[in-house]
Specification:
The structure is a single chain. This protein is of the alpha+beta class. The protein folds into two domains: 45 residues, no CATH class; 70 residues, no CATH class. The protein is built from five helices and five strands, in the order H-H-H-E-E-E-E-E-H-H. A hairpin with a 2-residue loop joins strand 1 and strand 2. Helix 1 packs antiparallel against helix 2. It is elongated. The N and C termini lie far apart (86 Å).
Length: 147
């Protein structure tokens, strides 16, 4: 591979984006490959695409939201997940704020919903999350209190 081949590949890798149908992981891989090509062939950094600044959240926001629905957040690095029942799983990317819900089936998984941010996940869980049932109320608690 020569410099002109590297420039052509860098130009093609710049076109990889979520807006063009790529997944966030594919975009991240394209950016890493582009960076490696630029370093190897000493391509000026002004050719690098501008990366938008994304507000970096902590896992506390996601954990609190999932805790409201009795779900346990498991995370490692920038990726996390929580299981809803036996057949659905929420997958979260901390660095981008993207989340998606997958239907777990035998041998394959099918996407059910996706969004960006804690509030959109809250809306999804309001409609499709696990239901919390209260078998007691505050008034019935006072009846059985010892005197």
């Amino acid at each position: 591979m020569n410099l002109s081949d590297a420039l052509r590949k860098i130009r093609l890798l710049k076109a990889v984006s979520v807006e063009h149908g790529s997944s966030p992981t594919e975009v991240e891989n394209a950016r890493n490959l582009m960076r490696a090509l630029m370093e190897r062939f000493s391509v000026p950094t002004d050719m690098a695409p501008e990366r938008p600044q994304v507000f970096q959240m902590s896992w506390v926001y996601w954990d609190h939201l999932l805790g409201e629905y009795g779900l346990e957040l498991r995370h490692f690095g920038k990726r996390g997940n929580a299981q809803i029942g036996r057949d659905r799983m929420i997958l979260i990317r901390l660095d981008t704020g993207h989340w998606r819900v997958r239907q777990l089936e035998r041998g394959a998984d099918a996407p059910l919903a996706a969004g960006v941010g804690v509030e959109t996940l809250r809306e999804y869980l309001k409609h499709f999350g696990p239901r919390a049932y209260a078998f007691t109320t505050r008034s019935s608690d006072t009846i059985f209190r010892r005197r």
